[in-house]
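Notes from hallway chat w/ T.B., transcribed later so I don't forget. T.B. wanted the structure written out for a chain they're using in a teaching module, and asked if we could keep both sequence and structure tokens in one place. Agreed to drop them here.
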Amino acid sequence: MTELLPAAVEPAPAGPAAPAVRLRVPTHEDAYAWHRVFDDPEVMEYFQGGPAELSVYHEFTARQRRHDAERGFCLWTLLDGGGEVVGFTGAQPWPHAWGPAGEIEIGWRLARSAWGRGYATAAARTTLDRVRAAGVDRVVAMVNTRNERSMAVARRLGMERAETYAIPGSGGQEGYCYRLEW
């Protein structure tokens, strides 16, 4: 049985109550679910290369299981109140040589059907609790400068915009690095 992590669900400061969310360490089967929910050009708009092949998600979910076993956190599968996979949220070491190398990045990616419903913020708050418990004292979030929805989530989490980085291979796009320390 896959461990479901508790989600401390709090209402957003000025908005409606946060939805019920559950996080779990990604399973082998979640590679198929992630591939399905992210096989959408709108969802992948700010990720270089667009939708990925299934094999990428098999490797990606396996890497997240290793991160969780080694660090106590990862990019967890995000389930809605009915138990349907709607994306992922969590934290991992920044995986690139450019940007905030060596730092822990919090991130989220949701199915188009889950946008605007509070899932990203609610699940990211749970992620912050988990990384604090694992001994992490600060996180970053890299957000494409055109991605207004993700910038709004970072601000709701109390993150502050710090550096701006050129995104290699993106045709001149940039990413904001948001930071949060506690």
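Follow-up for T.B.: Residues 6-15 have pLDDT under 50 and may be disordered. Might be a good example for the class.
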